[in-house]
Amino acid sequence: MSLFRPEALRHRQGEWLGTLQLSQPLPLAWITAGVVASVLALGLFLAWGQGSRRVQVSGVLIPAGGLVRIVPPQVARVQRLAVQEGQPVRAGQLLMTLAVGDPRLAGAPQGQLQQTFDARLQSLADTEQQTRRVAEAQQQSLAQRIEALQRELQQLAQQVQFHQQRLTLAEQAQARLESLAGQQFVSTAQVQAKQEEVMGLRADGAALLRQRASLARDLADLQAQARELPAQTAQQLQALARQRDEIRETATRADPAAADRVLPVTAPMAGTVTAIYAGAGQAVSDEFAMASLWPAGAPLQAHLYAPSSALGFVRPGQPVRLRLQAFPYQKYGWLDGTVRQVAQAPAQATELARLPLASQTGAPQPLYRIVVTLSAQAMRAGGLAQPLQPGMQLDADIQLERRRLIEWVLEPLLGWRQRW
């Protein structure tokens, strides 16, 4: 008697392989439609989408026409400052006063001045004699060293000649031994010993030739120094002569009262004092500016300095995005501008040296100036308009060109076709 009913057993006997399940894949039409739609979307994106190529450069804000540099007319000393940085001034307003002349001569009698000038002239005369003596000693030393090297080169040339004769005899002996070894009159060891001797002589000859070349270079250097020494001495003597003439000219025009003469420095035009480079009591000369003035009504421009590699596609009218370092763009945004002028020649080194970004652009490659017109003269910060100031440093993104994405993708193929 079975524990299970016969009907249950028959039902289980037909399912020992498991239940049958039929899976129907996605229709082929749906897959084809999805692929076609994706390809069409990508094609439309490449055909209608656009991208731009940009170049990043650095620059500084400068008024149109540049800053006015206040330069002293002659060597002087700042006696008093009448203005401060950031102060607006009108044309003709006093900026500072200069004390002209040497303050050490103030109140000195004429006889004492003459003694001072005579002492300076005597010091220059002693220096000139010392320069001549040193030059003569150097010339004699060079002549002796040149003569010694020439003798050494002659001896070395004879040594090279004797060594060449020894090498020739050794090679002839080697040839005879090799001939006798072929007839088995001498042993192979004797031939190898002679070969080693010849190789050693060749190495010694090469060393002698290197030594002779080194001595020849030293001799050429000494001869060049001997030729240049008179010109160097003449330059030193000419500099001393110029100093002597200046002292004599100063002595001729010396006036003890000139040290007390005061020279006023006034603003050449209305504007704002942007910087003062000289303080009270500081000596100044006509080689450096004492202050800089921002002319009234002159709008600020961005002067960008780009290398030649980034200049090929820059044209007037191209849009520029400026990021002022004083106003982080993550918080205050960009300042828009437009390229107004592109320089055709590199900026001079003196121009770059006066810029606050000279330390950043200290690259040896030439830099070209790009003038950009600003869309605004202030930045919105905290709900207030913060006016821009000359000298502010900035970074700029210049949009060189804008193309469809398909043109960027096919550019290598088009370039290859044009080359071939």
Automatic annotation (TrEMBL):
PROSITE patterns: HLYD_FAMILY. It is found in: Membrane. This is HlyD family efflux transporter periplasmic adaptor subunit. GO terms for biological process: protein secretion. Residues 132-173 form a coiled coil. The keyword Transcription regulation does not apply. It is a single-pass membrane protein. Residues 309-400 form the AprE-like beta-barrel domain. Keywords: Coiled coil, Membrane, Transmembrane, Transmembrane helix, Transport. The chain crosses the membrane at residues 28-48. InterPro entries: Beta-barrel_AprE, MFP, Secretion_HlyD_CS. Its main location: membrane. Belongs to the membrane fusion protein (MFP) (TC 8.A.1) family. GO terms for cellular component: membrane. Signal peptide: none annotated. It comes from the Bacteria.
